[in-house]
Amino acid sequence: MVDDASQDNTAATLAAIPGLRLLSNEQNLGFVGSCNAGAAAARGAFLVFLNNDTQVTRGWTEALLRCFDRHPDAGIAGSQLVYPDGRLQEAGAWVFSDASAWNIGRFDSRRNPAMRYSRKVDYVSGASLAIPRDLFEELGGFDPRYAPGYYEDTDLGFAARAANRSVWYVPDSVVIHAEGISSAGIVESGMKRFQEINRGKFAEKWRDALLSQPTPGTGLAAVDRAHHRGNILVVDTMTPDASRDSGSLRIISMMRLLVGEGWHVMFAPDDGHAEEGAIRDLGSLGIELLVKPWMASLPAWLAAQGHDLRAAILCRHTVADQYAGFVRRHAPKAKLIFDTVDLHFLREERAAERSGNSALARQAETTRRHELALIQRADTTFVVSEYERDMLARLVPSARVDLLSNIHEVHGRQAGYAGRRDLLFIGGFGHPPNADAMRWMASEILSELRLLDPKVQILIAGDVPEGERRALEESGLVVLGRVPDLAPLMNRVLASIAPLRFGAGVKGKVNMSMSHGLPVIGTTVAVEGMRLTDGVDVLVADDATAMANAYSRLANDEALWTGISDLALENVRKHFSADAALAALNRAIL
Q1: Could you give the 3-state DSSP secondary structure of residue 119?
Q2: How far apart are CA 497 and CA 500, in angstroms?
Q3: Are residues 393 and 248 in the same domain?
Q4: CA-CA distances (angstroms) from residue 13 to 9, 10, 56?
Q5: Domain count across the chain
Q6: CATH number at residue 250
Q7: Coil vs helix vs strand at 458
Q8: Are 236 and 132 in a shared domain?
Q9: Is residue 414 one of the residues assigned to a domain?
Q10: How does the average pLDDT of the chain come out, rounded?
Q11: What does the alpha-carbon distance between residue 138 and residue 135 come to, in Å, rounded to a whole number?
Q12: Which domain holds residue 63?
């Protein structure tokens, strides 16, 4: 804490606070001098500057520091600044060629998703600003020419960018800023007069850099466009939730990769809805949500904004069927990309075959016609497995089909073999193959397991409706519901179980388990298209007795367990990496 020669009892009050390091200036140094003095005395890896006319909100510093983890080139991170009356004050700022600046979103609603996604900007206010200490020292700190204040934060942003480090606005770091309350607010007198004085100094110092800035009067939308490669729209049935299903993890990973490549990514859920937490969490990754009430309808948005799109990724045939025509009509420059997620007709055909249901067979045939027509129409179609890609090569030979499978971080094995027991099933009841698997575990598999180990449990991590939950629990299954962090479970159970009897695509539950080094016991359907070998990097079992025997083998053979764990991790590294997914995205968009 820097006390800038205050004349009341501030210094005495602060000196009584345990753990606070107090620097007391003998004479008033102003903002620039005080900040530089504080930074010189600091010992941390990061510096976070905070004005005295602010109120902070929960998690504001953590959000700023996460920015540096997410963006390796980040040099400065700044908060969303809010007026005490709740209006948005600043979501970062742009600078024009005459050295004038514009606070993005000023007086807008801070709840507008357009103001709640992280982005690169020209500079952020020094009222709440984070920077690595070594970078601050390398840049020479706040330039003393701007003392006592104004334009020192703009100058620092330009210096960071000149050093090839980016400046980021972080919307989930919220700070209430009573702008100007600690100094006179009249431009002609008091501290505020230095704003115009220092603008001239800034213009002189950065004369060459300002030549590439937009001219005054340039539309703000055009200024924003100049800061990214282009706009990409992604549409799915609902807003993804990483704690809900593997499909959500995949689409979030895809969008993060695109943001990392400099694209402005906009996500629109077909149902138009997003929870507050989803807007915050996706926005913190740099993804803008197009949701009600901020967007009336997607067709209307496409009619107004489609001309700026470079690509539209439509996920699942129900979504692509609705919006492909609007994209072609209103976004003529956009690549139309159909992401099947998995081939729905294949899953429906297998379910119909298993049940012998003729109505379901007719539905599968209708879905097949729709999906194949969309694949023919799209510029690129994504599938998640080589099996599906080879099938479409036969069914639609003229279509451009590419493999974009599940995308997983390799978490690694955090605990060894010792002390592990039980099985983990990952998935929600709302997905028909999962519901069938849960019923099979309840009716046959658990009883076979308990013939070999009377105390064994099957844990289910995923949403299950209350009525079904009671029935499953009465059979002996342990229903945990949605689990935000699966890692603790992955590190204590013996294996993951995937008893899927129908379905399509690559199964996220299998990938996710293997990414933690957890061996998988799965059916042939569950491990299809994943380049896995029974007994090497997975155990394949297609009936209840075989499932129980596979569990017993793992429980009694540490070498087998460890070998499968090691090779499962290698499979994820080799076939389900971010690099492979990014290559497919680039082929489709560029």
Answers
A1: strand
A2: 9
A3: yes
A4: 6, 5, 20
A5: 3
A6: 3.40.50.2000
A7: strand
A8: no
A9: no
A10: 92
A11: 5
A12: 44-225
User: What whole-number percentage of the chain has pLDDT above 70?
Assistant: 97
Supply the pTM of this predicted model: 0.80
Cβ 270 vs Cβ 304: under 8 Å: no
Whether 188 and 310 map to the same domain: the answer is no
Question: What are the respective helix, strand and coil percentages of the chain, to the nearest 5?
Answer: 45, 20, 40
Task: Tell me, yes or no, whether 342 and 463 share the same domain.
Answer: no
Nearest-angstrom CA–CA distance, 433 and 342? 13
Domain boundary among 225, 255, 288: 225
Looking at residue 215, its amino acid is T
d(CA 168, CA 71): 9
In angstroms, the CA 84 to CA 525 distance is 57
pLDDT at 192 over 80: no
Q: Backbone phi, then psi, for 296, in 5-degree steps?
A: -70, -50
**DSSP assignment string, 481-545:** E--S--HHHHTTSSEEEE--SS--S--HHHHHHHHTT--EEE-TTTTTTS---BTTTBEE--SHH
Q: 243 and 216 share a domain?
A: no
Scan for tokens 């740099």, then name that residue: 286
For the chain, give the number of residues. 590
Question: pLDDT by residue (tens digit) across 24-51?
Answer: 888 888 889 999 999 999 999 999 999 9
Residue type, position 3, single letter:
D
